[in-house]
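note to self — DONT lose this again. spent like an hour looking for the file last time. sequence + predicted structure for the chain T wanted, 255 res
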Amino acid sequence: MSRGGVLALAATATGGLALAALGAWYFGFRDVAEPASVDEAVTTFREGTEPGRGSPVPEGVYVYATDGTERTDALAGVTHRYPRRSTITVTADPCGVRMRWDVLRGRSTTWTFCVTSAGWELASQDERHTFFGRTEETTYACARTTIRPAGDRPGTALPVACSTDGARERGSGRVVARETLRVGERRVRTVHLARRSSFAGEIRGSSTHDLWLARGTGVPVRVVLRSRTTNDSPVGDVHYEEDVTLRLRSLEPRR
């Protein structure tokens, strides 16, 4: 075989190895972000709801106009643009009420609130994020973290204290104001609640949560979330950002 033939064969073999490596990366690490559908949320609600368990908030699947993104610089970096609709599913919990926001398959947040005569206390917050086919779940357990005090008195200050394995969240919340928002053609009296937090440990950074609850029912009418965090990883720091605004489209839930 001539020298040219040897070089050509080597180039072909090298190219084959490169293509194989690229194929392994593509199928092993490619990122796919599929929207979570309203129909799936309704089906899950129907299959998982236990009859006879009362909730302080009307149960069902609430649909929200959604504007937001999440992004990470892990691997080559990726941004997920959220679909125009997402859902919050409200169900009863022994402590009070559970609200699960689904926007992508693999991206959800579940808040569990204990509801008493003293108000709403955040018991836990479960975060799920999926990038490159891998889902990370982080559950924060909270103590003495009142989100909504009885009476909705503007100016009321509230401490935030939550933690997970290897990280802790500290901050403050407050009742901002009583505000009237529009849902479709209806005007809804709401209470605007705000939370500002910082993180330390394996998770570092900050987040803000603004929540408008219907005063009569407790249904979330508007939600604004912003997060900037850095996580430890075997290959170094990984940065995460999320910005999202949710606006309730109808006061009538789907069941």
